[in-house]
Design a protein that fits this description.
With 171 residues, the protein is of the alpha/beta class. It is 52% helix and 11% strand. The longest helix is centred in the C-terminal third of the chain and has 19 residues. The two termini are 22 Å apart. The structure holds adenosine-5'-diphosphate (ADP), shikimate-3-phosphate and magnesium ion. GO terms for molecular function: ATP binding; magnesium ion binding; shikimate kinase activity.
Length: 171
């Protein structure tokens, strides 16, 4: 790791916007590492995110997430996907300044279809549609604040979305 190590791009957006899926396509296409702070958190905690929420609560998860975001921004030279709620922390938003941050936007109908019953996403375990609607309204300004570009994902395949991001990464 060098002092100049930084992600090629950071993906933010609501749950179901496709950060993890599109990020994997994009990294493969660019031939770079793919990193996801949710996977980093699960590896360090030694358990899946729903178990962290049940055993230690959301505040503890957010603390792990702040540490994971800082570590990944300092050490990832590829494509970095954040969890949908990472932008809630002012510390994370400040850490994203100066990075190339792509907001994968999604409207409620596609997000609901993609997250289904919310399995694996503890915040969406109860009434996923209403919860997602509320989360998206609360976070929309925060995604806009940190993003240097926005790519619409509704009705498009992960391959199409990755292909649209690639030209944005030049320069
Ligand atoms: N553009 C897309 N079109 C259709 N399904 C998608 C798309 N992007 C992601 N998905 C599906 O939606 C679900 C959530 O995607 P994921 O990448 O985990 O989203 P995020 O990481 O933003 O929460 C997965 O089942 C994935 O296969
Ligand atoms: O929206 C959120 O607060 C969360 C989104 C999840 O990531 P995805 O956005 O990748 O689903 C994961 O970090 C955790 O369940 C909390
Ligand atoms: Mg994800």
């Amino acid at each position: 790791m060098s002092a100049a190590t930084r992600p090629v791009c950071v993906l933010v957006g609501a749950p179901g916007s496709g950060k993890t899926t599109v990020g994997q396509f994009l990294a493969a296409e660019l031939g770079v590492e793919f990193r996801d702070t949710d996977a980093d958190i699960e590896r360090l905690a030694g358990k899946p995110i729903p178990e962290i929420f049940v055993d230690e609560g959301e505040d503890h998860f957010r603390a792990l997430e702040r540490a994971a975001v800082a570590a990944a921004l300092a050490s990832c030279a590829g494509v970095l996907a954040l969890g949908g709620g990472a932008v809630l922390a002012e510390e994370n938003r400040a850490a994203l300044v100066g990075h190339r941050v792509v907001h994968l936007s999604v409207e409620l109908p596609d997000a609901v279809k993609r997250v289904g019953l919310g399995a694996g996403r503890p915040l969406l375990a109860i009434n996923p549609r209403a919860t997602l609607k509320h989360l998206m309204e609360q976070r929309r300004p925060l995604y806009a604040e940190v993003a240097t570009a926005t790519v619409v994902t509704d009705g498009r395949t992960p391959e199409q979305i990755a292909a649209e991001i690639i030209p944005l990464l030049k320069g």
